[in-house]
Write a structure and sequence with these properties.
With 275 residues, the chain is of the alpha+beta class. The chain contains 8 helices and 6 strands, in the order αββββββααααααα. The protein folds into 2 domains: 96 residues, no CATH class; 142 residues, Four Helix Bundle (Hemerythrin (Met), subunit A) (Up-down Bundle), CATH 1.20.120.
């Protein structure tokens, strides 16, 4: 379990959907409040991600005993208000409920203003354009913390587009290398075979540059496809839906940028040849 820290609260405020709970372990030095100085959010006025700061003084937030003793964080609610450091006009506010025990601090957002925008990944949106409705529903489910639904929608989208993804991967390979083991692996993935075989094959079906730190996004996609939701909780499915989205987004973005570079290189060298 993650220990409660400023960084953990920051990530929670920035990313957690409304009404989903997150449990942290109590830090060694217990906190007097959930107050943190700064978060990073998209500013509607500056039109970019900016730091937002809580300009209230900590003294006004920490609760004191009538006897003057400092009180540690207790179960109840917390209010956060952050102002964009650049334009100083945009305010982002959050309402958080906390349940505190000696060992844990469990928190949920029960209010957020302005409403969090759905973050559509332009490249994924384009790639899935025929399944735009599923993608939209997957995003809505993600932003509400409906993990089981989000995972199911993402899996459906991947099932419908896996061949297209394999085509995209194959198009990045050198066509003159007929015996390229990666090409053979990709062809193997198109065939009907049990999912357990596919996971093994997928782990060999990517060139090194598509495996950041040895992590194989295609292998991860296949193993996520093989997993049913069965007894998984919303929280567990949310993590799986997010990693499915991250793997797809990485592969599609990398392949698109390689294609762009290759095309502009060919155009340039082709132009030189012609002159
Ligand atoms: Zn701003």
């Amino acid at each position: 379990m993650e220990t409660l820290s400023d960084q953990g609260i920051k990530k929670f405020l920035e990313n957690s959907p409304l009404y989903s709970w997150k449990t942290f372990a109590q830090p060694e030095k217990m906190r007097t409040s959930l107050w943190i100085r700064e978060i990073d959010e998209f500013c509607e006025t500056c039109n970019q991600i900016r730091p937002f700061q809580d300009l209230r003084s900590l003294g006004g937030i920490t609760s004191h005993h009538p006897m003057g003793k400092i009180q540690f964080l207790q179960s109840g609610t917390s209010y956060f208000t952050f102002t964009c450091v650049s334009c100083k006009t945009e305010n982002h506010t959050f309402l958080v409920e906390q349940e505190v025990t000696e060992e844990t601090v469990k928190i949920q957002k029960y209010g957020q203003r302005p409403r969090k925008k759905l973050e559509r990944d332009g490249k994924l949106q384009k790639f899935f354009k025929e399944d735009a409705e599923y993608y939209e529903k997957a995003l809505i489910s993600l932003s509400n913390g409906y993990g089981i639904a989000a995972f199911a929608y993402f899996r459906r989208i991947v099932e419908l587009n896996i061949v297209k993804l394999l085509d995209l991967l194959a198009s990045d390979l050198d066509p003159s290398q007929a015996n390229d083991p990666i090409k053979i692996a990709i062809d193997e993935l198109r065939k009907e075979s049990p999912m357990s075989d596919k996971i093994k094959i997928a782990n060999n079906a990517l060139p090194e540059y598509l495996k950041p730190d040895g992590l194989n996004p295609l292998g991860t996609i296949y193993s996520l496809l093989s997993e049913g939701v069965h007894s998984l909780t919303d929280e567990e499915c949310l993590v799986k839906a997010e990693s499915l989205q991250a793997c797809l987004s990485f592969l599609i973005a990398e392949l698109a940028s390689r294609k762009r570079h290759k095309d502009s290189f060919k155009k340039m060298v082709g132009g030189l040849k012609g002159s």
